[in-house]
Specification:
With 218 residues, the protein is α/β, with parallel strands linked by helices. 50% of the residues lie in helices and 16% in strands. Bound molecules: cytidine-5'-monophosphate. It is found in: Cytoplasm.
């Protein structure tokens, strides 16, 4: 496939989403928020009261979804669920079901379909390692747990959710451990990935760094 892909993987609340969207805008590329697909699956499962360890039923839930993405919003059956999928409860459920191989398999095709001209920025945990191994640029974005907890706190408050910074830090560490230690598609830098620690970087600086790397490989 000659359509260029830039992958940005990293732990939760590392700033991937913001950086990836800004890079996509700058290059006029499409944008895949793969975490949103796991969150959508989790939301659908919670609503349908599917048990979070019923792997076949969860895979069916994932395969049966017909989400659409419009102007940065996520719709499920024509209802905007962009806010609902950001709730911590949904994020935690997403991280649990993301450890199930059948769920991951059920979401592969949906992710591959985002690869459209003139190019794609894909953000997640396994974009460079599993879904787009032939990406022309792979970035692994990190930030300290404290910096990430603070960002997640601000995000939630801005969206009108209540939040507690210590609970967030605990959740974040649990989710990191689950993402990094699972048997399928564990979170780790892809071979050849550029590491970017954003703890002390502004969004602009991180975006400029990624664009600079891309300019060098394109
Ligand atoms: O990135 P975000 O926090 O929205 O992702 C929600 C959850 O989905 C993560 O905690 C992770 O467990 C899972 N995920 C994944 N693979 C991806 C993207 C997200 O396992 N490519």
């Amino acid at each position: 496939d000659s359509i260029p892909v830039i992958t940005i993987d990293g732990p939760t609340a590392s700033g991937k989403g913001t950086v990836a969207q800004r890079v996509a805008e700058a290059l006029h590329f499409h944008y895949l928020d793969s975490g949103a697909l796991y969150r959508l699956t989790a939301l659908s499962a919670l609503r349908a009261r599917v048990a979070l360890d019923d792997e076949p039923a969860l895979a069916q839930t994932a395969a049966g979804m017909r989400p659409s993405f419009r102007d940065g919003n996520v719709l499920l059956d024509d209802v905007d669920v962009s806010t609902d999928i950001r709730a911590e409860e949904v994020g935690n459920a997403a991280s649990k079901i993301a450890a199930l191989p059948a769920v991951r398999r059920a979401l592969v095709d949906l992710q591959l379909r985002f690869r459209q001209a003139p190019g794609l920025i894909a953000d997640g945990r396994d974009m460079g390692t599993v879904i787009f191994p032939d990406a022309c640029l792979k970035v692994f974005l990190t930030a300290s747990a404290e910096a990430r907890a603070e960002r997640r706190y601000k995000q939630l408050i801005d969206k009108g959710f209540s939040a507690n910074i210590n609970d967030l830090l605990k959740d974040l560490n649990e989710r990191d451990a689950r993402d990094a230690n699972r048997a399928v598609a564990p979170l780790r830098p892809a071979e050849g990935a550029y590491l970017l620690d954003t703890s002390n970087l502004t969004v602009n600086q991180a975006v400029e760094q990624v664009l600079g790397w891309y300019a060098a490989v394109r």
